């Protein structure tokens, strides 16, 4: 390794790694497990005289005998050189310049080896005062590339030239011991990129590994660094974490490490010692049901999940606003929805189309109690009725009582035949007591802001 020209402090951050080469006979990865498209890219690069390796999660998961989510490739070809080799290539990214080779919907990501930041590279690599990497486009050698990766288990390279595995940071041993271990000094690596704290939790849950002691130690204290991460990146990361099929466990581990509280400050205000608030109950329910749906290969909608996560904090705020702003329940919910969503998107950038659906689901909660006349029939025609009803059922589990009864009524109504439905509605009319609209204050202008249907 030619690390001789690194200065002392860089040695501290990036201890020279010991390369361990595992030959083709000594490991269990076969080319049959690698996607055709990834192989095509590897061979094309190799054919043009470049080094080409499969790297990261692809290698890690194959060694664990799991099916990789995707295959990432690292090479000494520059993005420009990559582009010249592939017609179906797009260069993307400002933070890291990457090549995407497109095969229909399958995208193979090809990254040029990244190097260290040295004085002469100042314009290319920017670092904030807190030590965070802002831009990171310095090309380097494979050794340097390995040192800059996050965890030892993510720094293994499968060489297409001889099918060997280059293990730079002891990843094989950590795979064996089932440990998530950062490469280099943990605090420095977290300060460079605080998202690595989230990734540590994500991999620990996904792989059922432990977070190695020194890697785990600084997290709780450094967790507030996440507040400086752009909201769009946090949103992406949260989807990966909460919609991974292990959302519930991920949330619990994030919370133990004080990470969830940073990403969702709005919710954390309602956290209790014994996980007993309605907010926490709802979180458990929605994440558990999301995990189940993924297990069953059913579709999941981030908007539904976020609507559930923020519902009780929003309702609590609405109740406060009824007092302080002298609003009726309906108007207070509208105001509180705006306020909560404005606050939320500052830390995680939930896209507009999803916040719109969240509002729809929330507004349906106000409409579902009002079932008389033709209303129940009309409600069922709505696009978001199903989501609104599923949501109501979940609330029924949290709140019990009236909401549970209402959810049961809707359950029966949906499965009932025409005559029975009519009878159910008539029955409501004959009782004609607005029991489930208890919270609505008498208002003469209640029709004014009827939600769109
Ligand atoms: P997954 O199964 O979730 O795709 P992965 O390990 O492939 O896991 P990616 O996010 O696809 O994760 O990243 C690919 C590789 O890039 C990682 O394995 C790691 O080597 C490197 N990497 C990604 N993010 C970082 C980061 N924040 N800091 C350092 N290295 C990173
Ligand atoms: Mg990956």
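^ Assign residues to that structure.
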């Amino acid at each position: 390794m030619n690390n001789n020209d690194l200065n002392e402090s860089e040695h501290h951050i990036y201890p020279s790694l010991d390369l361990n080469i595992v030959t083709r006979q000594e490991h269990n990865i076969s080319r049959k497990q690698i996607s055709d498209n990834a192989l095509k890219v590897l061979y094309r690069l190799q054919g043009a005289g470049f080094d080409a390796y499969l790297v990261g999660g692809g290698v890690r998961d194959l060694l664990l005998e799991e099916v990789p989510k995707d295959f990432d490739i690292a090479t000494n070809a520059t993005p420009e050189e990559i582009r010249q080799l592939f017609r179906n290539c797009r260069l993307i990214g400002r933070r890291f310049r990457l090549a995407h080779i497109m095969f229909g919907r399958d995208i193979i990501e090809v990254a040029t080896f990244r190097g260290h930041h040295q004085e002469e590279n100042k314009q290319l690599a920017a670092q904030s005062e807190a030590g965070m990497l802002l831009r990171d486009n310095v090309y380097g050698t494979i050794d340097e590339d390995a040192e800059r990766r996050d965890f030892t288990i993510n720094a293994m390279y499968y060489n297409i030239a001889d099918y060997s595995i280059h293990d730079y940071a002891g990843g094989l041993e950590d795979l064996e011991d089932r440990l998530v271990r950062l490469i280099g000094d943990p605090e420095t690596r977290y300060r460079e990129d605080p998202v690595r704290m989230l990734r540590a939790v994500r991999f620990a849950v996904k792989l059922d590994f432990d977070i190695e002691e020194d890697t785990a130690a600084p997290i709780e204290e450094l967790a507030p660094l996440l507040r400086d991460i752009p909201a769009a990146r946090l949103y992406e990361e949260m989807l990966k974490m909460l919609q991974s099929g292990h959302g519930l466990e991920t949330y619990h581990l994030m919370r133990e490490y004080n990470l969830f509280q940073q990403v969702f400050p709005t919710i954390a205000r309602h956290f209790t010692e014994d996980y007993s608030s309605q907010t926490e109950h709802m979180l458990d329910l929605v994440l558990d049901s999301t995990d189940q749906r993924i297990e069953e290969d059913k579709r999941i909608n981030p908007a539904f999940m976020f609507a559930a996560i923020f519902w009780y904090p929003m309702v609590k705020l609405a109740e406060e606003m009824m007092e302080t702003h002298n609003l009726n329940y309906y108007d207070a919910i509208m105001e509180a929805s705006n306020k909560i969503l404005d606050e939320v998107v500052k830390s995680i950038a939930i896209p507009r189309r999803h916040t719109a659906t969240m509002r729809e689901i929330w507004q349906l909660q106000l409409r579902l109690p009002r079932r008389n006349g033709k209303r129940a029939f009309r409600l069922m025609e709505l696009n978001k009725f199903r989501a609104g009803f599923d949501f109501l059922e979940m609330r029924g589990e949290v709140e019990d009582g009236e909401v549970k009864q209402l959810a049961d009524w809707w359950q029966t109504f949906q499965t009932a035949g025409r005559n029975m439905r009519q009878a159910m509605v008539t029955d409501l009319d004959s009782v004609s007591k607005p029991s489930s609209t208890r919270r609505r204050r008498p208002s003469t202008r209640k029709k004014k802001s009827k939600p769109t249907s």
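DSSP finds 22 helices and twelve strands in the chain.
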